[in-house]
Amino acid sequence: MLRRIALTVATSASFAALSGAPAVAYADSFPLVPPPVSDADRSDHLTVTVSGAGAGRDGKFELDCHPAGGSHPRAQAACDYLDRNTSWGKSPFAPPQERGMCTMQYGGPATAHVTGTWAGRPVDANYGRGDGCEISRWNALVPVLPDLSA
């Protein structure tokens, strides 16, 4: 009986010590951002193929990051954007989610196909501008895709 009381007191004290620390202290030690750039990240290479966007915007562009380069017209801005918008469990190239209602607006005939490797994962994503949801998804990836809002 005495042993059970001592174990209960010790266990309660342990839980009290653990629960006394604020939860924020743990959150700060594990941020939801990608890990630092490593040699494996040097393989970040994307091919962006755009059609129907208009003169000067259509074409097949190569995008290399870490360091930024390739034939993409805004390579540094595109790499910076992808770095800022990549986190654990969230990809800037995620497929569209099941959606409810989208505005029935037509954003033009532009389409884009992005393939390659980003953050060590394969990428194969298609973009269009057939309704409000697709337009929003396209605009969310500018400057990787051309800005067609003007």
Number of continuous helical runs: 4
Task: Kindly provide the radius of gyration, computed on alpha-carbon positions and rounded to a whole number of angstroms.
Answer: 23 Å
Global geometry: globular
> Largest sheet, described in full?
4 strands, antiparallel
Side by side, the strands of the main sheet go 2-1-3-4
Structural class: alpha+beta
- Strand tally, please? 4
Compute the average pLDDT: 79
Classify the beta-strand content into a percent band: 15-25%
Strand/helix succession: HHEEHEEH
Please bin the fraction of helical residues.
Answer: 25-40%
| Low-confidence sequence ranges | 1-37
* N- and C-termini, Cα separation: 79 Å
Descriptive account of the structure:
- By secondary structure, the chain is an alpha+beta fold.
- Helix content is 29%, strand content 19%.
- The protein is built from four helices and four strands.
- It has a four-stranded antiparallel sheet, covered by helices on one side.
- The longest helix has 18 residues, at 2-19.
- It starts with a helix and ends in an 11-residue tail after the last helix.
- The relative contact order is 0.16.
- The model is unreliable at 1-37 (pLDDT under 50).
